[in-house]
Amino acid sequence: MKYTELKKKLGRNELCWCGSGKKYKKCHNSFDDKLGSFKCQGATIPPREIIKNQEQIQGIRESGKINIAILDYISQNIRAGITTEQIDRWVYEQTLRYNAIPATLNYEGFPKSVCTSINEQVCHGIPSPNVVLCEGDIINLDVSTIYKGYFSDSSRMFCIGEVSPEKRRLVQVTKESLNIGLEQVRPWGFLGDMGQAIHDFAKQNGYSVVREIGGHGVGLQFHEEPWVSYVSKKGTEMLMVPGMVFTIEPMINMGTDEIYINECDGWTVYTEDGQPSAQWEIQVLVTEQEYEILAY
Ligand code: MF3
Ligand code: CO
Fold this sequence. Notes:
Blueprint: H1 3-9, H2 29-40, H3 54-77, H4 84-97, E1 101-102, E2 115-118, E3 121-123, E4 138-147, E5 150-159, H5 165-182, H6 191-204, E6 208-209, E7 215-217, E8 224-228, E9 245-248, E10 251-253, E11 259-261, E12 269-271, E13 277-279, E14 282-286, E15 291-295
Antiparallel strand pairs: 1-4, 2-4, 3-12, 4-5, 6-10, 7-8, 9-14, 10-13, 11-12, 14-15
Helix pairs in contact: 3-4, 5-6
The structure holds 2-amino-4-trifluoromethylsulfanyl-butyric acid and cobalt (II) ion.
Cobalt (II) ion binds at residues 153, 216, 247, 249, 281.
C-alpha cells in the first residue's frame, strides 16, 4: 500500500503506526507528510517496518553495547599463536555471559559465533582449530549479537604483531572511510551520498571497493532492508530518515575488486587476485539531527 493511502486511513487522533503509543498527530504525522513529498519527487523511501520507535531503539542500543564489549574483550586478548577457534570460543562465552546469543551461530547454516577473515579473505571466514594467527596477519572479526530479540552487528580489524606498511595503510584507510561515510549520514539525505563518499575515498587512495556484498538494515532482524552499497552514487538509493538503523561496512581491496566464494565451505569470500582486503563495520541510527553510532 502507498504511504498516502495509509495516511488517509489513520486519523490524527489514532495511535501512531510506529507502536509508540502516541497519537498519530504527535508522532509520525509530519514525518509521513515529508516522506510523501520525497516519494512524489521519485525518491526510494523506506518501508514502515524498518522505522524503529524509541523502545526498539533502546533495545538495539543495549544489544550494541554488548557487541562493543565483546569486541573490546577480544581486542585485549588477541595475539599471534592463537587459533581462530579460540576467538570463536571467547565470543561465544562472552556473549552468553551477557545473556545474549551470537547472531551468526546457525544463521543459514553458518556454524560459528563470529566471522574471522584473514588477509586475502574478504569476509565470512569460518573459525577453525587449524587456523593459527601469525605475526604480520591482518584479521577482521565480525561480531553480531541478539539481546532480548534485538540485533547488533559490527566488526573491527586487528593487526597481529609487526604488519607490513602496505597492509597497515589498507587497514587505516578502510577505517577512515567509515568517518568519510558517516559525514554523509543525516536525515533526508540518501544512502548513495554515503556510498559514493566511501568509494571516492578508497579510489583516491588507490584501492577498490567490493561491489557484490554490502551493509544492511538491522535491529529487529539480522538483515533488513535496505541493502547498503559502497559503490553507489550521490542522490540515489534509499532516503535516510530518523529511526532507520543500518550498517556501514565497506570491504576495501588492495588490488582488484573481484571476489569469489570458497566452494568447499560455501562461506569464505576471497579476493580474486589474492591481495589483502580490509573491512570495518559500524551500526548507525539516523536521528532527527544527524546520527548515533550503536555499535562499532
Ligand atoms: N555480520 C555479517 C554480515 O552481516 C554476518 C554474515 S552472516 C554469516 O554480513 F553467517 F556469515 F555470519
Ligand atoms: Co553486517
